[in-house]
Amino acid sequence: NDQEIVRFYENAAKEAAKYQMIIELHGSYKPVGMEFKYPNVLSFEGVRGIENHGGCIPDNSLYLPFMRSVLGPMSFTPGALLNVQPEGYKNGLGSNMVMVGTRVHHIAYYILFESGLQMISDSPRQFDMNPDCRDFIFSTPVTWDETHALAAEAGQYLIVAKRHGDKWWVGGITNNAENNREFDITLNFLPTDKVFRMTAFEDGVNANRQAMDYDIRKQNVKQGDKIHVKLARNGGFAAILE
């Protein structure tokens, strides 16, 4: 973020805007408000994201919504579908490109980490083999009309509800806690005059050991209902209400 690169970013954004082109700045410093002057700049990296593999663990990611995301859009490059718990991770070239955290933990990033341009960091083949996860991720918008923090402690856990149009998304993640975390979330943020169909991705019964284990729950919900959220270690929760 020296003068030369700051000037380059400014010139690139200005020139791209002239030709109605969008920009995502990867490998960049943290955002400092340039996206307000140049709305065609959709996101900045400025974070230790998925490309760091073993260095990008839930214990670190649980601080990002409280610190990094406050500054502006964050290109975290989520979308890892080869998931392990910490003891299953092996670093080094030639090893599987796996990520620490449960499958649902990584899906929930799309709700929790805001970026005007989202990525899918895994192989397209992985998404073809997991169409339910793919379709949920692709249905998650990149802009939001309303946000509610439902449960939060920096570095420990986070559950947030967000609205886009007349649909709601609820995302939650937790760190490498020794025990499962459980929450009863009251859906007070929903409008009074509608019954929603909730499709929720949840950590499976074996997710504390087999991080790719997950279940899908479907049920009707309305304002004032409570939903039970159970997060495995390094786990997550991701739901759409429509």
The class by helix and strand makeup works out as alpha+beta
What share of the residues does DSSP label as strand, in percent?
A: 25-35%
Indicate the CATH class of the largest domain: Alpha Beta
**What is the CATH-assigned architecture of the largest domain?**
Alpha-Beta Barrel
- Helix-residue proportion: 10-25%
Q: What is the domain total for the residues?
A: 2
Q: How is the largest sheet built, in terms of strand order?
A: 5-6-7-12-9-10
What is the CATH H-level superfamily of the largest domain?
A: Aldolase class I
What is the number of E strands? 12
Query: The CATH topology of the largest domain is what?
Result: TIM Barrel
Average predicted local confidence, pLDDT = 95
Number of helical regions: 6
Describe the main β-sheet briefly. 6 strands, antiparallel
Radius of gyration: 18 Å
Helix-strand pattern = HEHEHEEHHHEEEEEEEE
**C-alpha termini separation:** 42 Å
Low-pLDDT segments = none
Dominant shape: globular
List keywords for this structure.
single chain, 242 residues, alpha+beta, TIM Barrel, 2 domains, 6-stranded antiparallel sheet, 6 helices, 12 strands, globular, glycosidase, hydrolase
